[in-house]
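look at this:
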Amino acid sequence: MKIAIFTDIFLDTFGGIPSSIAAQKAGLEKLGHQVTVFCPGFHQPKDTNIVVVPTRKWPKPNGAPLAYGPRRIENWLWANVEDLKSFEVFHVHYEASVSIVGVRLAQRLKIPLVQTMHGREDKALECNIPWGLQTVVGKMINSLHGWYLPHRMVVRKDQELASTPGRAQMWTMMVNHANFAQVVITPSMHFAQKLQQYGVKRPIEVVSNGIDDEIVAQNWPLRKLEKGKKLKIIWNSRVSKEKRIMPFLAAVAECRDFVEVSVYGDGNELERAKKFVREKNLEKIVKLFGATEHSKLFEKMRDQHLSVMASYGFDTQGMTLLEAEATGLPVFFCDPDMAEVVPTGVQAAGPGVAEMVQALRQLYQNPQRIEEMSAVMLKRRQDVAQSTQLKKLLKIYRKLID
């Protein structure tokens, strides 16, 4: 099968979406399928099946490459890629320029289109744009999207998830983008239900992100916390506002007597996190390593007691949680929706610092829970193997092609 993936987030980017795409591509290729990824990037990788589209030198949101506008990319692809018509399936993994082009080309070439919706763009707007600019920025993003993919539905401001004009604009973009696909994929049922609530009419299939089978099959240790030893916690996701690194570090400051934290990742809160660690004299218990090659993170996880995902209300799945399950590492999380993703974990009673402190203290006072949770994770790790999820994905592809 010949598959084209269109995404705005892949190369030179740290986070769940690029790692899930990379795992998907590698898994499909191992099964004999040909997968080509079209994405922005600052360099052309050795893999000839990754095609770097025209990319801006500036700005670099969170240090990531930003593609030029859809029309320029589309014209470039027509001029430089000879076999666009030969793909059997287009799979789109975002909603910006490159992803818009994937939708437009699928329509023009009459190629089946699958769209993965990874998370809540309304929450991204809320977290990353100052309050006074959210309506303007939301309107601008939505209008630009609608210029290239005409919108058929409008989401109105309400008292639920579209609680501001800016967030309603982002829901309008997400819903309309999803409705251009033949099949929509979400990594969780809770996100699927919210997309349907706001107007997605296309069939939605829940297909989890997956972890490379070779990683899952490794001999991962059963984690144990010896009484009196410090609780070793790893943060291996973006150091950003939406991931809520600062509230988590504030909780760590209250637990300094019994925790050690290793932070791997880059993002728009890294400098602020470094400053906080210095000001609170946390240098001995919090180590900030910055961006780290994803393949090396698994070995970093081997001697930890707990992985953490502090985000709240993003309706994401969190590769962090799946990677923890694949390696038998217990997890700590705040968002109750994440309970759908993992078979066991430590859930804070809410998103606040006090709730996180309480959950961490209770865990430390009951160290046997680490071993109990680790045993469950090791038993269930095949659930997150890439091969398990690819069976579902290939079934969707074949049905569309047939």
User: Anything to note?
Assistant: DSSP finds 15 helices and 15 strands in the chain.
